[in-house]
Design a protein that fits this description.
The complex is a heterodimer of chains A (about 230) and B (about 775).
Chain A lengths: L1 E11 L4 E12 L4 E5 L6 H8 L7 E6 L2 E2 L5 H11 E4 L11 H10 L5 H14 L15 H13 L5 E5 L7 H16 L3 E6 L2 H4 L4 E6 L2 E7 L4
Parallel strand pairs in A: 3-8, 3-9, 6-7, 7-8
Antiparallel strand pairs in A: 1-2, 1-4, 4-5, 9-10
Helix pairs in contact in A: 3-4, 3-5, 4-5, 5-6
Chain B lengths: L1 H14 L1 H30 L10 E8 L4 E3 L6 H8 L3 E9 L4 E5 L2 E5 L1 E4 L3 H4 L2 E6 L10 E5 H8 L2 H4 L3 E4 L3 E11 L10 E4 H7 L12 E6 L5 H7 L11 E7 L16 H31 L2 H9 L4 H38 L10 H27 L3 H5 L2 H4 L4 H34 L9 E5 L2 H5 L1 H9 L4 E7 L9 E2 L2 E3 L10 E6 L3 H5 L3 E4 L10 E6 H6 L9 E4 L2 E9 L14 E5 L7 E6 L4 H15 L7 E3 H7 L2 H35 L1 H9 L4 H36 L10 H26 L3 H7 L1
Parallel strand pairs in B: 6-11, 8-10, 18-23, 20-22
Antiparallel strand pairs in B: 1-2, 1-12, 1-13, 3-6, 3-12, 4-5, 4-9, 7-10, 8-11, 9-10, 14-24, 14-25, 15-24, 16-18, 17-21, 19-22, 20-23, 21-22
Helix pairs in contact in B: 1-2, 2-9, 2-11, 2-22, 9-12, 9-15, 9-22, 11-12, 15-22, 15-24, 15-25, 17-20, 22-23, 22-25, 23-26, 24-25
């Protein structure tokens, strides 16, 4: 599904050039659950942003679903993104002025799905995430775990091929964190491909494979056989 | 999608009530001003343009050969000659204003009415609703009158019963009502209660048959497609045949209202332009306000933008969303502005002497209002929309944009611009008020205080001596005189003056007035040489001249010298110090005051002691009723008439004061919003500084300092701009104040003071907040 080769990303200021990704290469197959780990500043979030087509790379190759997307402009990337990728963030990133239902619905609005169909799909995913009873509440009225469930609902409502999760349990207590990880595992079992950035060894164990990074480079890559 | 936009726009308005309120208030105030001025300009622009033949109608004015314009005055004989000799002229009418209100009576109803004398083509050239009678025959027989619907209702109850009836004119003549008309538009300068035949006026006034007497107006209707420039060329020497070295020019009648000052080629258009600029600037200030407040407010919505982008929103859909929100807000502001206008219109109409009615506006104006509002929304929303949609998602989630200062210079420039305009407005307003005050209190050379002008109706003109001896006996009255007209405003000019040693090529123009005994003492003019008028004997004509006339005639000792004005020979008995008889915009013209003259000697002047106004008026009224029972008592205060000469300035001052106050208020609203925004942005910095021991004062000045810089730059730019424009405005006055430098100092203090108050409120609030809270929220 994803194949990156010698991917490069650097940030320049007037005096410094900081290398965030140093010719990194790896592959993610359909249906995999991959964790990316590494200390702060190792480039894992930058990598996730590029995989999510929120940011562009400075060099190398990025093949997504057999298409070379490295040179795509923002419009093309946005189009690819909205149909194929769902995002889960550490800080949930729900829009405070929209209800649970409306937050999830937003993902469908941009793909141009009709209202009646949207309603059906949103209700279905909210049921699946067990937050149907909170559909008319605003994010600030929910607990952290509930907010992350809404965020996950939003990420999957479009049936994306790929889910990208950036420290999904970072803002949650361990019990709620485990619930969220169970949810992601369940989605993976149902066929979703997941790439997750995490600091937590505990969370990483939920995945099939761990890629460890340091200073923008891939250091190791382990398959988790016990999973 | 649109529903989602509206939902989120509405919830954001509710979520940030202060910012939304400031935003809508600013835009409402701006739109309110703009629309008010727009309605006024639309009304001014539509003046006199409703006539069906407007493209063919022209006013005639005369110029010296290739020289400056003389004025609209033409010979009373011109219209007939033009009709006979110039085929391009389809229709032509002469017009003479009746200089005073005339008395009409029918049975016990006695009323004074305003009217004009016009010739036969008049009603076929200009558009009226003819309610009764026939336009082409209305004034073609002697002793006929066309009256307005209002006048018909006053005398006869309705138009139908008025037609064919007779009215007594000036207690001496029976006139048959041949026509009843109604104005076909309110936007007209042609507002007369009645029209009388010009031919009969001509027959009764032999002096009108002089070609050199330029006392009538002439209007023509040109054949369609006539080239005006060619026609003027063709008529270049037309008046030479009548021994008049002047040339005929045509001014489109549609322009005669806005460009009435034909000498300068301007007129009310100056105010239209000026107010147009003011309206535009106020709208700009309000839009900038919106831009600043909205872009500051939208920063809080960075997360929303990020999420939308992640979910696939393109740049264009985000721009559309924010432009849409701004347009919705401006439409809401339009709604509030219209409510304000409904309440403000009566006062505004009174100040501007207009009759604007929101319910009677043409559809085109409403469409323009809507277009302007939507345009304002789009203009105001454009900066935040483009700014926000250009953010990178990765920057948003890293909270990089919140601390970025790369775009803040635009906001700073906008604030500077707002304050520049505010400074220009405020200092100009103070200077205009000083000039108006100067004009209203200037010693104009005659004492206009405590001076009453009483209209002498027909019978009283022949019985003036009785009136004078009765009036002088009223306690409080100090002197009485009579003159041909109130010496304020419009004058005819004439070169028909002969004096000793006048050279053949001397074509100096003089203005004339006829006065009576006690003129100098009643008017309070200063006598420089000679004496007051003491004779009213047509066989022994006395002349007073002003200083300018004396200099024009190059006389060193004019007393006792012979002088002839329009063929009336007499002797100069005195020289008076120059006094103003027009607007202070004009210099003083050479003036000749002659004793005795025409029968049109219709105004008596009564000078009374300060404080005796009430009893003087009561006593004069009873005296008037005794001597002249058929006519109502009519009087005016000369000082009020004088102030009317500067009515436009006065109106301009009142409105510009209002707009200046609003401009600074709107600017401060924007500033207030920005301070809230800055304080929020600097929460972390303030927290850290407080933890490290900074005092409330240090932190307040940290925020205030940045804004103060911007305001000072605004003052620095605005001051010279204001100086430049006000110097130009003052230069238009022959008599004016020196540019008051202190005004700029005062403006700076005012603007800085008001802004500091605005800024410090929020800064102190930020400075005294608990740092633990702010740091924890980070």
């Amino acid at each position: 599904m994803i194949k990156i080769e010698k991917l490069e990303k650097y940030f320049t200021t007037e005096e410094y050039k900081t290398i965030a990704l140093n010719k990194i290469s790896f592959e993610v197959k359909e249906g995999e659950f991959v964790s990316i780990m590494g200390p702060s500043g190792s480039g894992k979030s930058t990598l996730l942003n590029i995989l999510g087509m929120l940011d562009d790379a400075n060099g190398g190759s990025f093949i997504f679903n057999d298409q070379e997307v490295i040179k795509y402009n923002e419009r093309k990337r946005a189009s690819l993104r909205k149909h194929n990728i769902g995002f889960v963030f550490q800080s949930f990133n729900l829009i405070d002025q929209l209800t649970v239902f409306e937050n999830v619905e937003l993902a469908l609005i941009y793909t141009g799905i009709k209202k009646s169909e949207r309603k059906e799909k949103v209700n279905e995913v909210l049921k699946r995430m067990q937050i149907m009873h909170r559909r008319n509440h605003f994010p600030q009225q929910l607990s952290g775990g509930q907010q992350q469930r809404v965020a996950i609902a939003r990420a999957v409502v479009n049936n994306p091929k790929l889910i990208l999760a950036d420290e999904p349990t970072g803002n949650l207590d361990s019990k709620t964190g485990n619930e969220v990880m169970d949810l992601l595992t369940e989605l993976n079992n149902q066929g979703s491909t997941i790439v997750m950035v995490t600091h937590s060894e505990h969370d990483a164990k939920y995945s099939n494979r761990i890629i460890r990074m340091l200073d923008g480079e891939k250091v190791t890559e382990n398959m988790l056989v016990n999973h | 999608m649109i529903q989602n936009y509206i939902t989120i726009a509405w919830r954001n308005i509710k979520a940030d009530k202060v910012l939304s309120f400031l935003n809508i208030l600013g835009l409402t105030s701006g739109l309110f001003c703009f629309l008010l001025i727009y309605l006024w300009i639309a009304s001014e622009n539509s003046m006199n343009k409703y006539h069906a033949n407007i493209d063919q109608l022209h006013s005639i004015y005369l110029t010296s050969s290739d020289g400056p314009a003389f004025g609209y005055g033409t010979s009373s004989l011109l219209y007939k000659e033009l009709k006979i000799k110039v085929p391009e002229i389809e229709k032509v009418t002469a017009m003479s204003n009746n200089s005073k209100k005339s008395t009409f009576s029918n049975g016990s109803t006695v009323l004074k009415q305003n009217g004009k004398f016009v010739s036969e083509d008049f009603f076929e050239m200009f558009s009226f609703n003819i309610l009764e009678g026939n336009a082409s025959k209305a004034l073609n027989a002697p002793n006929q009158i066309a009256i307005s619907k209002q006048m018909a209702e006053l005398f006869f109850g309705n138009s139908k019963s008025a037609i064919g009836q007779t009215l007594t004119y000036e207690n001496s003549k029976e006139l048959k009502i041949s026509m009843v008309f109604e104005m076909s538009s309110e936007n007209s300068t042609e507002k007369s209660d009645y029209y009388l035949s010009f031919a009969s006026l001509f027959a009764e006034n032999p002096w009108m048959s002089e070609w050199k007497n330029l006392g009538a107006y002439t209007f023509v209707q040109l054949a369609k497609g006539t080239d005006v420039v060619q026609l003027e060329q063709k008529l270049k020497s037309f008046l030479i045949d009548y021994d008049l070295g002047l040339e005929i020019r045509f001014q489109p009648y549609a322009d005669s209202y806005l460009y009435a000052d034909i000498v300068k080629g301007e007129g009310k258009i100056l105010y239209v332009r000026l107010f147009g600029i003011i309206a535009f600037l106020i709208m700009l200030i309000a839009s900038i306000n919106f831009m600043n407040l909205a872009s500051a407010g939208y920063m809080k919505r960075a997360k929303e933008i990020g999420v939308r982008k992640v979910l696939g929103a393109g740049k264009s859909s985000l721009i559309a969303q924010f432009l849409g929100e701004a347009t919705l807000l401006s439409l809401a502001s339009l709604f509030f502005a219209l409510i304000l206008i409904v309440f403000a219109l009566p006062v505004f109409n009174q100040i501007t002497d207009k009759n604007i009615d929101l319910l009677n506006l043409p559809a085109s104006i409403w469409i323009m209002v809507l277009v302007i509002t939507i345009f304002t929304g789009i203009l105001s929303g454009s900066y935040p929309a483009f700014l926000l949609s250009s953010f990178k998602v990765t920057d948003i989630f890293k909270k990089k944009i919140e601390t970025s200062s790369s775009t803040s210079w635009i906001r700073k420039a906008l604030v500077v611009f707002q304050f520049t305009i505010s400074v220009v407005f405020i200092s100009s307003m103070i200077i205009i008020s000083k000039q108006i005050d100067f004009v209203q209190h200037k010693d104009i050379g005659f004492d206009r205080e405590n001076l009453l002008a009483v209209t002498l109706s027909k019978d009283l003109q022949n019985n003036y001596d009785a009136f004078k001896s009765g009036a002088i006996q009223i306690p409080g009255v100090t002197s009485v005189t009579k003159t041909s007209h109130i010496p304020l405003g419009d004058y005819g000019t004439s070169p028909e003056v002969i004096w000793n040693n006048k050279t053949a090529d001397d074509d100096a123009l003089f203005t004339g007035m006829v006065a009576s005994v006690d003129f100098v003492s009643t008017y309070g003019v200063e006598l420089l040489m000679g004496r007051e008028l003491i004779h009213n004997n047509p066989g022994n004509i006395e002349y007073l001249i002003n200083e300018t006339a004396m200099n024009k005639m190059k006389m060193e000792n004019p007393i006792g010298q012979p002088l002839s004005f329009w063929g009336n020979s007499g002797t100069i008995v005195g020289v008076v110090k120059n006094f103003h008889f027009g607007s202070l915009k004009e210099s003083i013209f050479p003036m000749i005051i002659r004793s005795e003259g025409y029968s049109e000697f219709n105004i008596a002047f009564v000078k009374y002691n300060q404080g005796s106004e009430k009893q003087t008026l009561a006593a004069l009224e009873s005296l008037h009723t005794n001597l002249n029972p058929a006519f109502p008592f009519e009087y005016r205060f000369v000082d009020q008439e004088y102030n009317k000469l500067h009515k436009s300035e006065s109106m301009f001052f009142k409105l510009s004061t209002f707009f200046s106050i609003l401009a600074i208020l709107i600017s401060c609203l924007g500033l207030f919003g920005l301070v809230i925004f800055t304080a929020e942005q600097k929460t972390k910095e303030i927290g850290i500084r407080k933890v490290l021991g900074a005092s409330v004062y240090t932190i307040t000045s940290l925020i205030t300092r940045d804004f103060l810089k911007l305001i000072l730059i605004g003052v620095a730019i605005g001051t010279p701009i204001s100086w430049y424009f006000m110097s130009k405005w003052l230069a238009d006055y022959e008599y004016r104040i020196d540019m008051p430098l202190w005004v700029f100092g005062l403006t700076a203090i005012l603007v800085i003071g008001i802004s500091l108050l605005t800024v410090s409120f929020e800064s102190i609030k930020a400075a005294i907040a608990n740092p633990i809270k702010s740091l924890r929220s980070e």
